[in-house]
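Usage example:
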Amino acid sequence: MLHWPLYITFLGLLLLLLLPSRAGAGAARIVALAVSLAGLLVGLMAALRFDPHAGMVTLVNAQWIQWPAFRFHLAADGITVVMVLLTGIAAVAGVLFSWNIEHRTREYFAFYLTLIGAVYGVFLSVDLFLLFVFYELAIVPKYFLIALWGSTRKTYGAMKLALYSFVGSAMVLIALLATYVMSGITAPSTNASAGAIASFNLLDLARHSFPHDFQLWAFPLMFVGFAILGGLWPFHSWAPTGHVAAPTAASMLLAGVIMKLGAYGALRVAMTLFPAGLIHWQMPLAWLAVIGIVYGALAALVQNDFKFVIGYSSVSHMGFVMLGLMTLTTVGLHGAILQMFSHGIIAGLLFGVVGRMVYDRAHTRELDALEGLKLARALPFAAFTFVVAGAASMGLPGFSGFVAELQVIIGAWKAFPAMTLVVGAGIIIGVAYTWRALHKAFFSDHNSSPPHHDALPPITWPEKAGAILLMLCTLAVGLYPRILLDWIIPALDSPLFAGLQKVIGP
Amino acid sequence: MNEVDFIGVFKVLLPEAVLTITALLVLMLDFTAGQDHPLANRMRMAGFMTALGCVAAVGVIWGFPPVAVSNVPLIEINAHIQHYKIALLIITLAVALLAIETDFTTHVGEYFALLLFATIGFLLLVSANNLLLLFIALELASLSLYLLTALDKQRPQSAEAGLKYFLFGGMAAACLLFGLSIFYGVSGHFYSADVGQHLPRGPLPVDPLMAVAMVLVLGGFAFKIAVVPFHLWAPDAYQGAPAPSAAVVASGSKVASFIALFGLVFAAMGPLGGNAHWSQFAAGWKPLLALMAALSMVWGNLAALIQNNVRRLLAYSAIAHSGYAVLAILTQQQAALAYYVITYSLAIVGAFGVIAIVERASGGAELAHFNGLARRSPLLAGALMIFLLSLAGIPPLAGFFGKFYIFLEALRDGPTRAGQPTMGLLYMVVLAIVMSTVSLYYYLQVLKRTHTTEPDKNAAPLPLTLGTWVTALLAAAVILLGCFPDWLLKWFR
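Running the assembly step on the lines above writes:
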């Protein structure tokens, strides 16, 4: 049942396209909200019934293409459950935060639902061809969402994002094809025809041990290909410009789930298939992750555009995910997956406040200009939300960011203590930039221009609903992280990760 | 050879006969009854008759499969070839329907008759199993295409395109014929399979004459499929020709030439293959094809980046796509080649269908003429998006699976060393994938115009016409074949 959100989303897309054109914007909104809510609720129900100790559970496995032998194979383990839930939450919040889209509403939600459907598809696929199809399918709607409904340098940001994504998937594609061919010919039962052995099924490929010298080049190719979308420094530069140019809901999705696609692919495919390559490249990649943490935080510290602050903070937080993966310790991996969820929620919240609540009302994102507006008094709910989101983003105890980043740091401390000191500096800078943005935007005493409260329309119910949903999620995970860890921990012990298990420490 | 079975010949050539009769009927009706009618009616009559002829020919292929035909000289027939013919007929059918709405010429009968003659050439080309019929079929198709290109007499560009196409084509035909005659002279046979068996074996340059003949033949075909460095005619021909003619040049002609080239190199020139695998290069047609494919992918994609005219852009992208298709030839997998060129043809015919409609409504095919197409005709803009994204290789469209399959077969090609595949064509695959990321940029440039730019103030919405529906059907085919590649692949396994 966990795969139903995928079907629901694409059926919803079809319904949206078939709406008569006189139905107007309201109908499109309601369809989009209903579809994403249905996806979330069905996903949640399936998640509650899901047995995390069952390992990889096949949901559907149907013949698709006879030769080359590709199957429509969807399966789930605990990590999938977490990611599907994240996608559902982000989708609902995104629809709520785009309630004010009046320009070509139906097309907007059509692209939006395509994107959500593709994301569900990536998380649920275990046939790597299918996974790749969904992975690439996600590129085009992103482009149009930004180019059509975006702001600041939108065509530039959209094209940059599309090309970066496409380059990343090209790298993944080369590595995937090579993997397929390697697995086909070196399989033990060489008496059958090559077609019968070669497989794109992750479960089969994970059992196969690839030659060492092959892993040495295939692993970095595939890992970096995925990690480009995950915002790995120095391939991150699409992220700030893309986030800033995107409309609010697209920023929320980009930071919330699209970047997770990259991290998920890096873990699920690259690290699972090529443990030997992973060991070899562990240190360089870990350093890239640490540089990303510090660089992203430093860059966020000096931005004057409010959205760029959040954009660079995403790079910094995704650095924690990458670092957690590279620690190769159990606790670090748990932290990385938790951080994927946590950052998805928090980034959605931050972009919601900045892009929708503030920018759509004040029509400026310059921190200097916002200083004079006294937003804390004009928009108390926005200020409250940002305080919560900022606290979660800084990693204050009680919020999801704390548990996740703590685990990553414990893992990093075990693996490379010296590096952890640098990460500590990154965290302190993280506090500084969040504090700076919070102060300048909402609580400044600066009195350069006369305050004009009444000019700002009040926060509407969809925004409140979306913000409350996201805040509840980050609090729940922060206070009781086991609701997610109970899914994550058994998943990493499953036989799928057997190759990975051999190389990771406690 | 035994007694020739003339009934068998007739059975085998039935689809071609149907097309010939249709062509003559179209000519006759247009010259007699048609002269009193307005142009639009003549177009409609001739176009629908052409379409009907194609449907009838498909029906004949399906309805009367030539079972147990033997002793038919010159013509090869098997299930694959029948399926190629069906695909070619469907392409011509779509082109004919798209041509109905055009109004560039008053020579209606001639136009559709030439279209049918070209199609007959394509059908014969895919079923020729000997050097002679191969050449004649190629010339039948080419001569018809030259005329189709130049038939828009009001525009000098059309004449220029036709002349360029003809001059280059004439040279290429001469080269091809010379090369084929050398093969005939050396081997003493003119059936492709016999030629292959009687050529001197061994590494090239076993005989300089063989090298000369091989280069001449490849050059002749390289012109037809427009690969670098024999591509110079393509951008001008695509730009100057009437839109339906450009669609045929880009689709049916490509499919037939690629299939014929595939048959020729493996049957007649098999011993001269050489090796195109990395670090095992050996002289022959394989490295030559690999070189031309690499040049085409690089040059086609890079040159397309700076085009302002959508037709020229598609021409350069077509050059790049020929590069991918040549890579498919190197893999020896006919199914990969067939799937790729057929789905490519559907997309390019559809794209030219959209271009034809936009040109009639806005007066040109510059990028600016496509501004705001999504507001003027959502269906047309949606179809164009499907075609261009398919050409760019975005799943789940047909172009994606086509490329994926070619790359897969290219990597599988070759021997294993110590139990591991050598992946000798990896360098070609990497180049192809890198260049296809470049291609996304220029396709998105067009889609940016259609979907994000606002239309001009005075631009009216476009009406739903026959052409719109044909392009919509083609778009549906591109999506469906992309989601279910088996529907087409099973024809060629």
